Amino acid sequence: MTVFILRRVLQAILVLFITSLVVFLGVYAIGDPLEILLPADASMAERAQVAASLHLDDPLPLQYLNFITSALQGDFGRSFVYNRPALDVIFERLPATLELVTTSLILSLILGIPLGLIAGVKPGSVTDESIMTGSILGFSLPNFWQGMMLIMIFAVWLGWLPSTGRGQTGDILGIRTSYATWDGFIHLLLPATNLALAQIALVIRLTRTGVQETMPLDFVKYARARGISERRILFVHVLKTILIPIVTVLGIEFGSLIAFAVVTETIFAWPGVGKLIIDSINMLDRPIVVAYILVIVAMFIVINLIVDVLYSLLDPRIRSRAS
Amino acid sequence: MTMTFLRKSESMAARILRGLLSSPKATIAAVICLILVFSAIFAPLIAPQNPYDLNEIDFFDAKLPPMSEGYSGMTYILGTDGQGRDMFSAMLYGLRTSLAVGVTSGLLAMLVGTALGLIAAYRGGFLDSFIMRFVDLMLGFPTILVALMVLVVFGQGVGKVILALVFVQWAYFARAVRATALVESGKEYAEAARCLGIPAWRIMGGHILPNCLPPLIVIGTIQVASAIAAEATLSFLGIGLPITQPSLGLLISNGYQVMLAGLYWMSVYPGLLLLVLVFSVNIVGDRLREILNPRLAQ
To answer: Engineering a disulfide at B117: which of A28, B81, B165, B174 sits with its beta carbon 3.0 to 4.6 angstroms away?
Structure first.
């Protein structure tokens, strides 16, 4: 067991190291930040001075070495645009993204599970067909366009919900969140729906498959024989058994939602890390781009590591296969 | 050997056709796909104007709503954009770019993924576990993050976007091909071929690869749809195709700037076209999966 975890941790570190190298080299190649930071008529002396103050004139391996040693201490350099430590800027924006992602996950569970249960209980029926076609639609709808349509319908035509920004936030138990105020809450609705739609489709599919696999099992027949209503069997007995795999998959999806928040945040001008990274790519704000990718990749690796370890604890077969 | 291969692929084509036609939903979707592909190929012939020929565009016709008549007497059925371009023509040309990028990257990813999947299955050992570790890693990361990283590292442009999409997608093919190839190479015909002393690379390419086609067709279809959607997303974010290669995603992005001002047609119609395209390809892919391999459904 210890060997398994150790192998996994070593692998994770290797992946992080390679990512850092690739991203550092790539970002170094995309452009000259001096072009953006300095006015067009800056003299060579001014250029050299700024380059030296940002350590842009060091040889490449030295820059990487400096970068990686300070990165290990949590220092990714100062953002060229905000003139603050890159990691600070990212961590300041991260709560807004996490709030959006969590809300989407909750939404996808609340809507996806009942729809999946209904579809799975009568496979091939008209209800099932329409729910499944709807879920393909959910996968197919380009996320950004679907977000624009949400804005157009609910913000422009109906005028019910605000379309951009985060609105007012308040404190609940010391955490700044949009849930604390009504204004914040209604600002959250459209972006969260936008991000959740593909997840809802996913949850519907998972639930439907789960129901189809569970319904023929003996314990369901036994529950029927005991005279328990079909509805109670479906929503209590069957649901309980299929909930674990669904929650596991959603756990893994958490990371990918953070990545997809890039699109949602751009459309809804949500002040999270996703919007930050797109802005930073366009402004060649190298430290932010590098820090963002490494932070997200690290989060991803940690989530996958936890899932792997939990699985191997639950199912010893995986452990023996991997080693 | 050639004969049996031909006969087999023929019967598979017939099976696919029969399966598609037996579902009205899939038939409609397949017909829509065909129409869209044809209109993309023949866009210059169908489009009322060449939207990127400055001589044909009238700046006085800018921002006209759908069905309005322009300065030159031409009726713009889907309106015009901010430069006076006919939206319908621009969408046809955009469809062309979107399809070209999606299909190219889908096919390239299939090529790379199939080759690596076959090598993994046939070599086994260290190479196999190395390739498959890499596949696991790739599949573990969300598409958009990987594409973002590739574009950050290599910069922007049509070739770079295709590269990013191939990078994102090859792993799906590799995993499927390896799994199928492993099963197939245990069968009697593969064993017979080995006994005949046929070199391993020929068994893999000539005997086993044709039997990997069903999963490849299914994944290929679905990956083309997701490549088109991914390209549109990247272009919308402003890190995809350059402004000189306006795909549907870029058209939507341009329309988005004026959508809140009520000029809805510049973003709604290209978006609908994109949706219809991706949706029908996905429906066809879903049906293909049912026809070719019921067990592949996850």
So the answer is: B174
